[in-house]
Design goal:
With 156 residues, this protein is of the alpha+beta class.
């Protein structure tokens, strides 16, 4: 296989993609829209739908107005990885169509862009993992990460 390629592009935010890299990704609801439990369940299932097919999720959490993911795109073909844009379009697009079916909301669900960061080493990976796990606890939504129903992590 070829050497990993770094791709850099901008919309409003800069986005860097490196073949084979893991990413910490955050995406937010439009204008701080608060997702009800049923809507969070829709997003939760949307995130897991292509897990281990297009990407590998290590840990993720669906909060009331944002989502954090620690994930790695997988190979799409012999020398091409699934792009973050394609992955995020799938998750956000499908969930945006389903959310109005479970809560009173008409219009935009997600902000256009996402915050993404290439995870540079094991220390960063572990820090992001713990940050994601503790997010519902820090927000007062549960007393332990395991008590929060919209947190998922790779079984050890």
């Amino acid at each position: 296989m070829e050497e990993a390629r770094l791709k850099i592009f901008h919309r409003t935010l800069p986005h860097w993609e490196l073949d084979g890299a893991s990413y910490f990704i955050t995406f937010n609801t439009w204008e701080k829209l608060e997702l009800n439990p049923e809507a969070r369940e829709v997003v939760f299932n949307s995130c897991l739908f292509f897990n281990n097919q297009r990407y590998k999720i290590f840990v993720f959490v669906v909060m009331t107005d944002h989502v954090h993911l620690l994930m790695q795109p997988l190979l799409k073909s012999e020398n091409e990885y699934w792009s973050l844009s394609n992955i995020m379009s799938s998750i956000k697009g499908y969930s945006a169509k389903q959310i109005p079916k479970v809560m009173k909301h008409i219009g935009t669900v997600w902000q256009d862009e996402r915050y993404d960061r290439i995870v540079r080493n094991e220390e960063e990976f572990q820090a992001y993992w713990q940050y994601i796990r503790q997010n519902p606890v820090e927000a007062g939504l549960s007393s332990t990460p395991e008590d929060y129903p919209y947190l998922w992590q790779t079984p050890e």
